[in-house]
Amino acid sequence: MKSVEAWHSDHLEHPVRLVRWGEMGTPVLIFPTAGGDAEEIERFGLVDALGGLLAAGRIKVYSVDSVAGRSLLDKNDPRHTAWLFNAFSDVIREEIVPAIRLDCSSEDIEIITAGASIGAFNALSALCRHPDAFRAAVALSGTYDLAPQFGGEFTDDFYFSSPLHFLRGLDGAHLSRIKQRFVVLASGAGAWEDPGQTWAMAAVLGEKGIPNRVDIWSDDHRHDWAPWREMLPLYLDDLA
Questions:
Q1: What is the pLDDT of residues 158-202, one digit of tens each?
Q2: CA distance 227 to 234
Q3: Which secondary-structure segment (H or E) carries 98?
């Protein structure tokens, strides 16, 4: 079963859509790639790849529009794009999480995040910024250092939206909560992949004592949907 909700977000000053597939099971919030919308994962076969888990009632899949990622892809003003990334995090916690919990008839159910490319960045950011709502992240072929794409402008909005940067200075109760979570960092070694970004992100997680697992797949696994359709069902089968 598929459902679509849409509303105007005051946090983003932009319309937001939340699409759901499935009727029961662990909620999984999958972030699109940079320019993707909430139904991108369906068009590129990822929902079908998760069909076994959906049919078994083990997961419910949700996705949202990549408003901030689209701004980055369109090369808009870096400061505005950084603001969008930071505001997008507020949308996830204050609007998307409550909507998912209402749909699941649970006020405190914990959600798994997932995504590929910029979607991996958003999945990891959601977990690290809101560990009260998310219990695990599956980050595929991630781009974690967005500083070059922001022209090196380290505004507060950029800093607090980027786990590669803000985790280094994090401590206290917030960090303690993230240490109770789990992160999967996976990447192919084929065309257009950059496993170095995955290892760099894993190093920061490791330094802060955050449980994580790194999987570097083969040279046959390039930065594309076919490998992600292969990877994600395996990881969710372990986590859901």
A1: 888 899 999 999 999 999 999 999 999 999 999 999 999 999 999
A2: 11
A3: helix 97-103
Taking 80 as the threshold, does the pLDDT of residue 75 lie above it? no
Q: What pLDDT shows up at residue 82?
A: 85
CATH number (domain holding residue 202): 3.40.50.1820
Give the integer Cα–Cα distance in Å for 207 and 79. Answer: 29
User: How many other C-beta atoms can be found within 10 angstroms of the C-beta atom of residue 94?
Assistant: 13
- Exposed, middle or buried: residue 102 (CB in 10 Å: 0-12, 13-18, 19+)? exposed
Using an 8 Å Cβ cutoff, are 115 and 30 in contact? yes
Taking the CB of residue 14, how many other CB atoms lie within 10 A of it?
Answer: 17
- Amino acid at residue number 63: S
Report how many domains make up the chain: 1
Q: What gap in Å lies between CA 28 and CA 33, rounded to an integer?
A: 16
In one letter, which amino acid is 146? L
Q: Considering the entire predicted model, what is its pTM?
A: 0.96
DSSP 11: T
Closest CA to 67 of 113, 21, 13: 13
